[in-house]
Amino acid sequence: MKLYTKTGDQGQTSLVGGRVDKNHVRVEAYGTIDEANSVIGWAMTLLQDERFRDIYQELQRIQHELFDCGGDLAIVGEKMPYKVKPDMVAFLEERIDVYIQQAPPLERFILPGGSPQAAALHMARTVTRRAERYVVALMKQQQTNEVVLQYMNRLSDYLFAVARVVNARLQVKDVEYERSAIVFRDKNEKEGELE
C-alpha cells in the first residue's frame, strides 16, 4: 500500500458523500480534531507513570472517540449512522465530577502549566477548544452530528480537570492568574455570582 495517492494534489479531499476543498470548514473541523488527538498522544507519553494509569487509559479511549468524531464530521449528505453518542458525553461528565474532587478548590483563573504533563494537557485543551469553534462554524452551514459539538465542549473541560489533577498528584501548585478576581464559587455559597 502506498501512503500517497496524489488525489489531493489539486487541493481537494474526499469525504463520505463527495469531495470538498481542503480548506473547507468541515475539513478544518475534523482536521483540528486530529490535531487535538495528536497532542493528547503526546501528553500520554508523559503520563506513563503508575500514578496516572487511570488518566492514561481514559485518554486512550478518548483518542478512539476522537476518530469517531472526525468520521462523523466527514459524512456529507449520506444516510449513515453516527458513531458519537450521548453516552460518550456522559462518560466525560462523570470523570470531570470525579476529578474536580481530587484537585484543590478553584477560585481564580489559572495559567496553563505547572508540570510538563499538565502543560501538555492544557495544550490539548486549547486545540480542542479550537476544534469546537470549527464544529460550531460547520453546524451553522451544514447538517452534521450535533453530539460531536457537545463531546468537544466536555472534552475541553475534562482536559482542564485532568491537568489540575495531574499537578495535584505531582504536588505541583497551579499558578493563579495574578490579576484574576474570585470567579469560581460554590453554587451553595452565593447564588447569582459569576462562576
From TrEMBL:
Record-level Gene Ontology MF annotations: ATP binding; corrinoid adenosyltransferase activity
Read off the NCBIfam families from this record: PduO_Nterm
Under Pfam families, the record lists:
Cob_adeno_trans (PF01923)
Query: Organism, per UniProt?
Result: Anoxybacillus flavithermus
Family affiliation:
Belongs to the Cob(I)alamin adenosyltransferase family.
Name the UniProt record assigns to this protein = Corrinoid adenosyltransferase
Spell out the subunit comment. Homotrimer.
Against InterPro entries, the record matches this protein to: CblAdoTrfase-like (IPR016030), CblAdoTrfase-like_sf (IPR036451), PduO-typ (IPR029499)
Q: What is its EC number?
A: 2.5.1.17
Q: Which domain of life is it from?
A: Bacteria
Query: What SUPFAM superfamilies would the database entry show?
Result: Cobalamin adenosyltransferase-like
The chemistry this enzyme catalyses reads: 2 cob(II)alamin + reduced [electron-transfer flavoprotein] + 2 ATP = 2 adenosylcob(III)alamin + 2 triphosphate + oxidized [electron-transfer flavoprotein] + 3 H(+); 2 cob(II)yrinate a,c diamide + reduced [electron-transfer flavoprotein] + 2 ATP = 2 adenosylcob(III)yrinate a,c-diamide + 2 triphosphate + oxidized [electron-transfer flavoprotein] + 3 H(+)
What are the recorded Gene Ontology BP terms? cobalamin biosynthetic process
- Parts of the chain that traverse the membrane: none
